Task: inverse folding
């Protein structure tokens, strides 16, 4: 188990900010609420609505650098969105931007964790699946944890109902709860080096 305090910086688009959640938690807040706070954990969310992978890669380091601390165990959580598909960013470029981001994070000793983009009803499932697999491959090659939210949710009745109710890019409470569950059950506590909250 860790002894130093942990500092987690979340970066991404409005999904990371939990936009559309009436409880104002999103998936990040739900994950942190279910994470054992021992050692103490400070989490910071740096979201930019509408951001694609190129824009994220261009701004994250300057924003994160001022928030890391040499005395803390600092981590970076990258919440991937699907604005790449809205802005015409190619799969190859999106993959390259994520790879460069992860390489820089490793050099900064930030120990990244990546959450892939969830499914949208207004885009081709095939294209969304291609991007998810590409992001997963980039992470696998670098031994970085990756949570695929697309595959388990694309045909999930509760997710799709939530997205119909939302009528937009982000889910509502139920959808964010599903995303949080996937993160918590796909290596989150192991990555942090803490016991599951239910075991406390």
Result:
């Amino acid at each position: 188990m860790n002894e130093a305090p942990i500092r987690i910086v979340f970066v991404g688009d409005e999904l990371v900010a939990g936009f559309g959640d009436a409880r104002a938690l999103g998936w990040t807040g739900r994950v942190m609420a279910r994470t054992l706070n021992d050692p103490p954990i400070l989490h910071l969310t740096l979201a930019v609505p509408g951001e694609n992978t190129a824009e994220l890669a261009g701004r994250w380091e300057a924003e994160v650098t001022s928030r890391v601390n040499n005395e803390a165990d600092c981590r970076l959580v990258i919440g991937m969105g699907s604005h790449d598909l809205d802005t015409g960013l190619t799969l190859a470029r999106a993959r390259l931007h994520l790879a460069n981001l992860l390489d820089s994070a490793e050099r900064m000793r930030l120990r990244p964790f990546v959450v892939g983009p969830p499914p949208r009803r207004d885009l081709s499932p095939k294209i969304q699946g291609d991007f998810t697999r590409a992001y997963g491959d980039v992470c696998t090659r670098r031994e970085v944890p990756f949570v695929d939210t697309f595959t388990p949710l694309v045909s999930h009745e509760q997710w799709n109902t939530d997205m119909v109710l939302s009528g937009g890019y982000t889910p509502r409470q139920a959808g964010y709860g599903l995303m949080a569950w996937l993160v918590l059950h796909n290596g989150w506590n192991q990555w942090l080096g803490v016991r599951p909250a239910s075991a406390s």
Observations:
- The first helix runs from residue 14 to 17.
- Strands lie at 6-12, 41-47, 73-79, 112-115, 146-147.
- The radius of gyration is 16 Å.
- The chain is about 45% helix and 15% strand.
